[in-house]
């Protein structure tokens, strides 16, 4: 399977990718815990059916020390005992923020309030931006049919160093 287009070889796609990655750096350097960031990225990618992003973030999570048990349970996080209350709040916000069309009001006040109990304003801002960014990345990869499976941990970090 080949991608429909290599966005990095396109002038517009390449410029956009650099700016997109730069915006992502703001989130990755925030106070939102890395493990929470990875869980959010994986869950949104699962919901959206983005194989490339699911592959990338799962491999990056493994490389960062995430356990296989927790990775196996992300899609069933509500029934799993392996996530903290803060992680569960982030996953709930991720699901509602990703499934906007399913919730005519987007993220519910209840879900927002639970997340606010676990994250300060800076972390909440990072969480909102992260949900938006991963959903955008999912959509770009799905539209272009970027194939999954060849990602190696650290590839994104290597690309970010070129910025």
UniProtKB/TrEMBL annotation:
It comes from the Bacteria. This is AhpD family alkylhydroperoxidase. Residues 19-96 form the Carboxymuconolactone decarboxylase-like domain. GO terms for molecular function: peroxiredoxin activity. The keyword Secreted does not apply. The keyword Iron does not apply. It comes from Labedaea rhizosphaerae. It holds the Pfam family CMD. Keywords: Oxidoreductase, Peroxidase.
């Amino acid at each position: 399977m080949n991608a429909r287009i290599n966005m990095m070889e396109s002038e517009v796609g390449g410029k956009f990718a650099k700016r997109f990655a730069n915006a992502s750096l703001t989130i990755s350097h925030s106070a939102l815990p890395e493990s929470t960031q990875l869980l959010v990225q994986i869950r949104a990618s699962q919901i959206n059916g983005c194989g490339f992003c699911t592959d990338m973030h799962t491999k990056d999570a493994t490389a960062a020390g995430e356990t296989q048990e927790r990775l196996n349970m992300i899609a069933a996080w509500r029934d799993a005992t392996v996530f903290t209350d803060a992680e569960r709040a982030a996953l709930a916000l991720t699901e509602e923020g990703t499934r906007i069309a399913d919730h005519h009001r987007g993220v519910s006040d209840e879900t927002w309030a639970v997340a606010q109990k676990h994250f300060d304003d800076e972390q909440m801002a990072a969480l909102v931006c992260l949900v938006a960014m991963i959903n955008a990345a999912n959509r770009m990869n799905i539209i272009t049919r970027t194939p999954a499976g060849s990602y190696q941990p650290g590839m994104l970090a290597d690309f970010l160093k070129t910025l």
